[in-house]
């Protein structure tokens, strides 16, 4: 998919589907009508007169152009009330238009840049995001691809005002980079467990580094043992796939880094505390935190953001093999603390404990971990918001802002002291499960027990990374959540 920005009169544009936006506002609809008169005669006027288009949110009107016009058809897309138009509305409207363009077998879709309360740059980014992400499909393994004979291959934005050129071109480049990161995260997370396992996940990180000129170090099972990462080793033991510990680094080493930690469980059977078989397949996406970190590195390095970031990914497969860890086992982490394994299905926190302890070595300015950590966060927040916990208000505020901007929203859950006793162990420093109640919080508390002296936020993306249904610009499966959120956060860092 290619993104383009051009200064041109919409009436002179040659494209398969020309998209124009209209607010729910009779005056503005009349304006569109008069603009369309030379292109399409009174075709749109008739549609409006019939009451078939009022400018409602995501409403579509397909209009055929006059003979000899360079574009065959026009799509007028409603944006709803002018005062409620925001970036998310624009994404969704662009998504609706792009999917209609695909249905019409268009190769090129061209948006006429609408006037909004947002800048031309932000408006354009939102349109590119909505359009491109809505057309995403994971079809690498399909022989007969869904509509492959006619995929949309070019997304254009045109504006008649030469003053929009630099904003539009910046938007095009910015969007292409963050979307490359998001698509990479989706592809990795959607990838099946027989293809994406610790070694291949590490290869993907290395390829990302080679492509974009940053360093990636992969520690193998021997290194991990030498480092004393007992959590990673314990979880990996039930599988024939060997664990990997992936270290990515981008940007100026002279400043303290932001460390991004991603849970990389390439498949989670639950281990000896095995999961029920129904729905287990979606546990191929239990490395969505890792995918978000790799995707963020793709985006940030392509954008050349002036930030120093380190990515840490403990990568394991959680299987119930004969060497698997058992309930009751005690493991010693990188920081010397011990965990009692009460449930082998609470494996994510065991590997994250090592990675979070290791993060302290970098004397970080901040540490953010992303993990599909608990089913309970899906019970609490559904697929709408990411659960957020942490020890630093300012950091959480920054993530909240970035979440509102990108619509990858986060919602705080409390790490009150009273929850801590739920993970006390009789035999070790901490126990890896906290019982029936407050699942996301006891998981967060477990992580808090292992962090170093740094500012930290934990994002439980179990609900937002793994989707059961299609959305406006997301599909059943992986959402790639975290890439746009973290990239926006890092864009505003310092
Ligand atoms: N990977 C799962 C969490 C998960 C569940 C992610 C559903 C996405 C959708 C995690 O490793 C897990 O199994 N958590 C347990 C924790 C429990 C044993 C305390 C859970 O949520 O049941
Ligand atoms: Mn599990
Ligand atoms: Zn898991």
Describe the structure in your own words.
There is one protein chain. This protein is of the alpha/beta class. The protein folds into two domains: 2-158, Leucine Aminopeptidase, subunit E, domain 1 (3-Layer(aba) Sandwich), CATH 3.40.220.10; 181-491, Zn peptidases (Aminopeptidase, 3-Layer(aba) Sandwich). Helices cover 37% and strands 20% of the residues. It has 15 helices and 20 strands. The protein has helices spanning 26-40, 43-49, 87-103, 120-134, 165-190, 198-212, 221-227, 230-236, 288-303, 348-359, 375-381, 393-406, 439-448, 462-465, 483-491; strands spanning 2-7, 17-22, 60-64, 73-78, 108-112, 154-159, 215-219, 244-250, 258-262, 264-268, 309-318, 330-332, 338-340, 366-371, 386-390, 410-412, 430-431, 456-460, 466-467, 477-478. The strands form four sheets. Strands 7, 8, 9, 10, 11, 14, 15, 16 and 18 form a nine-stranded mixed beta sheet that branches. α9 links the parallel β10 (264-268) and β11. α3 (87-103) crosses α4. The structure holds ligand BES, manganese (II) ion and zinc ion (ZN).
């Amino acid at each position: 998919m290619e993104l383009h920005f051009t200064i041109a009169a919409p009436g002179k544009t040659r494209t398969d589907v020309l998209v124009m936006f209209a607010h729910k506002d009779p005056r503005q609809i009349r304006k569109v009508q008069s603009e369309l008169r030379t292109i399409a005669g009174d075709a749109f006027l008739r549609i409006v007169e019939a009451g078939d288009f009022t400018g409602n949110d995501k409403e579509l009107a397909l209009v055929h152009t006059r003979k000899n016009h360079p574009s065959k058809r026009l799509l007028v897309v409603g944006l709803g009330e002018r005062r409620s138009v925001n970036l998310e509305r624009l994404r969704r409207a662009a998504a609706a238009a792009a999917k209609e363009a695909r249905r019409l077998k268009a190769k090129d879709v061209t948006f006429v840049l609408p006037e909004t309360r947002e800048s031309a740059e932000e408006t354009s980014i939102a349109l590119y995001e909505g359009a491109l992400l809505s057309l995403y499909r994971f079809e690498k393994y399909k022989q007969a691809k869904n509509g492959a004979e006619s995929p949309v291959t070019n997304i254009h934005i045109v504006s008649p005002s030469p003053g929009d050129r630099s904003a539009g071109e910046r938007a095009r480049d910015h969007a292409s980079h963050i979307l490359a990161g998001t698509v990479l995260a989706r592809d990795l997370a959607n990838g099946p467990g027989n293809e994406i396992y610790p070694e291949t996940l590490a290869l993907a990180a290395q390829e990302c580094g080679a492509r974009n000129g940053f360093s990636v170090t992969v520690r193998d099972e021997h290194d991990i043992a030498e480092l004393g990462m007992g959590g990673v080793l314990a979880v990996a033991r039930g599988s024939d796939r060997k664990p990997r510990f992936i270290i990515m680094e981008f940007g100026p080493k002279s400043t303290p880094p932001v460390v991004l930690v991603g849970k990389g469980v390439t498949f989670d059977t639950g281990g000896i505390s095995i999961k029920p078989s129904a729905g287990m397949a979606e546990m191929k996406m239990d490395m969505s935190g890792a995918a978000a970190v790799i995707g963020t590195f793709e985006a940030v390095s392509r954008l050349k953001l002036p930030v120093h970031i380190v990515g840490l990914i403990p990568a394991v497969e959680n299987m119930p093999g004969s060497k698997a860890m058992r309930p009751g086992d005690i493991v010693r982490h990188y920081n010397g603390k011990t965990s009692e394994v009460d449930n082998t299905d609470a494996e994510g926190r065991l590997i994250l404990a090592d990675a979070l302890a290791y993060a302290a070595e970098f004397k970080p300015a901040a540490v953010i971990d992303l993990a599909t950590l608990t089913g309970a966060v899906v019970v609490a927040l559904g697929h709408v918001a990411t659960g957020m916990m942490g020890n630093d208000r300012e950091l959480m505020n920054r993530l909240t802002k970035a979440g509102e901007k990108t619509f990858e929203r986060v919602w705080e859950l409390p790490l009150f002291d009273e929850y801590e006793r739920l993970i006390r162990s009789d035999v070790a420093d901490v126990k890896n499960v906290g019982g029936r109640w407050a699942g996301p919080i006891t998981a967060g508390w477990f992580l808090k027990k292992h962090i170093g002296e740094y500012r930290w936020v934990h994002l439980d993306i179990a609900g937002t990374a793994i989707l059961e249904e299609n959305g406006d610009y997301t599909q059943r499966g992986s959402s790639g959540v975290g890439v746009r959120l973290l990239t926006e956060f890092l864009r505003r860092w310092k």
